[in-house]
Write a sequence for this structure.
């Protein structure tokens, strides 16, 4: 770990000055980053004051005037080089992500792999930012559309994917010709510094103008400044629904654009026709991976009554085998929660479950003693619930898995859709009709609907996001790039007359 911290923390301490990047010496308060793994203080960074923020936005706006003129494939080539730099530093950066956020080593490295994947996607995209041509209704006219960059794209990210979510947004935004200003979570500032440190080496070699990629450290207040700032053309915000409500309303008040990626409350339906072994792996990984702190974490299992008892027994046995502890140890399945505040929320949810008539089926609670000194470790827990359990409507960002019994598929889909969030969903079945019904218009109302895989762990090739209180945004693959560009429709007259549209006759 020391080599990793040496690599990234020293420069973070004097707070930046990255080549080619307008992360300037900020003058705000210091925030400390403690690892939830062992409570060690791993870095201190200085937040941006309002004046620092203004200076960075100005620098970004100036850089946009240059960056937008660079051909998109040239921008793509710089992203290709960034992917190469990430490949070289994958283990180092992955380890830092694990240590600062608390996810397992493989998940930390997996997050960096996701960064590399989105870079590769963005490189290809840099030659495919194309629009349509349309047939004009007027003679000697041509009509087509093209896509231009928006300007400054603000990126606000959550603690649980401290590096990947930035890259999903930034790599696409950059090849599209935008410049970016990133406000990472105040709970994972060092991972953000590390990303820009790696990026700055690539920018320097390519003489990218300062201000193309920017970092502003700070709390939600900086995020609020971004939401209110007309200089930011698109605010892409990932985090809780509470944060998204605030950002969405502030951006709407200035008629700006925003892309919201908010909380989930994801369910797997396990039918009587499911392969139960496969369902078990999908459910357990989905529920306890990243200690239940993924937006796509499986929070509810809706199980057919014919297999309910059998499946819950399997689940309980699997939970007994889970190894909880230091996520840097490859034998560990479940690491810590991000901080003690998250532990309090987990404990409050356990109390609410019992008060509201749910039943806790596995060992549950905070862990203490050797190896758990940070106070952030909890036992993943299973709770039996009726579909009307009030606490189940909320996203508790911890490893609590509700199991609910159902009789008909229609009822299961109703329970699955009967929450305010709409991110990820899955059905486990070998029955084609059940699978197709789940995917049909009568089925899942989520942005992601899977068959025979769990709810968590999306690939970058698809558009990622969800409906209802998940915010409606889509980012990453497919045609999500369109959110980062403005569409312009152009009609060109190459004739000598001026025929008007809709057959309007107008003569002087
Ligand atoms: P959070 O909402 O507390 O914070 C997220 C980010 O928003 C942070 O950078 C924070 O400083 C900033 N912020 C907070 N209040 C703000 C405000 N009023 N205006 C502007 N910015 C503000 O979330 P968190 O605890 O860091 O992350 C967990 C949440 O994120 C969960 O709800 C999870 O489901 C969600 N999440 C969603 C996705 C997705 O793609 N849908 C991905 C990851 C996490």
């Amino acid at each position: 770990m020391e080599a990793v911290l040496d690599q990234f923390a020293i420069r973070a301490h004097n707070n930046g000055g990255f080549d080619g990047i307008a992360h300037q010496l900020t003058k705000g308060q210091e925030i400390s980053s403690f690892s939830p793994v062992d409570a060690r203080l791993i870095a201190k960074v200085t937040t941006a004051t309002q004046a620092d923020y203004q200076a960075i936005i100005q620098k970004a706006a100036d850089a946009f005037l240059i960056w937008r003129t660079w051909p998109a494939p040239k921008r793509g080539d710089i992203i290709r080089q960034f992917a190469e730099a990430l490949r070289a530093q994958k283990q180092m950066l992955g380890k830092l992500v694990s240590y600062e956020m608390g996810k397992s080593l493989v998940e930390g490295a997996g997050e960096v792999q996701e960064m590399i994947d989105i870079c590769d996607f963005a490189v290809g995209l840099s030659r495919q930012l194309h629009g349509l041509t349309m047939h004009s209704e007027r003679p000697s006219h041509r009509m087509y559309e093209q896509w231009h960059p928006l300007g400054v794209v603000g990126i606000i990210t959550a603690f649980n994917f401290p590096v990947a979510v930035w890259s999903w947004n930034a790599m696409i935004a950059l090849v599209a010709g935008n410049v970016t200003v990133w406000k990472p979570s105040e709970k994972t500032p060092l991972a953000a510094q590390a990303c820009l440190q790696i990026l700055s080496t690539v920018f320097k070699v390519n003489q990218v103008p300062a201000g193309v990629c920017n970092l502003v450290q700070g709390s939600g207040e900086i995020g609020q400044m971004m939401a209110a700032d007309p200089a930011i053309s698109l605010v892409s915000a990932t985090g809780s629904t509470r944060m998204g409500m605030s950002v969405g309303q502030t951006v709407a008040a200035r008629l700006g654009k925003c892309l919201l990626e908010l909380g989930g409350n994801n369910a797997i339906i396990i039918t009587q026709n499911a392969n139960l072994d496969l369902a078990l792996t999908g459910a357990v990984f989905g529920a306890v991976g990243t200690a239940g702190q993924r937006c796509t974490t499986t929070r509810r299992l809706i199980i057919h009554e014919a297999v309910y008892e059998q499946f819950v027994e399997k689940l309980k046995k699997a939970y007994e085998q889970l190894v909880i502890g230091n996520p840097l140890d490859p034998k560990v399945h479940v690491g810590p929660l991000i901080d003690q505040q998250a532990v309090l929320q987990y404990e409050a949810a356990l109390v609410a479950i019992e008060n509201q008539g749910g039943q806790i089926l596995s060992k549950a609670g905070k862990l203490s003693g050797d190896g758990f000194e940070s106070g952030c470790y909890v036992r993943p827990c299973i709770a039996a619930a009726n579909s009307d359990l009030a606490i189940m409507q909320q996203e508790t960002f911890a490893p609590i898995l509700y199991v609910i019994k159902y009789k008909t598929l229609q009822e299961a889909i109703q329970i699955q859709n009967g929450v305010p969030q709409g991110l990820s969903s899955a059905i486990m079945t070998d029955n084609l009709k059940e699978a197709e019904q789940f995917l049909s218009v009568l089925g899942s109302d989520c942005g992601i609907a899977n068959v025979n895989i769990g709810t968590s762990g999306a690939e970058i090739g698809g558009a990622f996001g969800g409906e209802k209180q998940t915010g409606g945004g889509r980012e990453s693959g497919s045609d999500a790039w369109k959110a980062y560009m403005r569409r312009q429709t152009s009609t060109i007259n190459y004739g000598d007359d001026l025929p008007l549209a809709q057959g309007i006759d107008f003569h002087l």
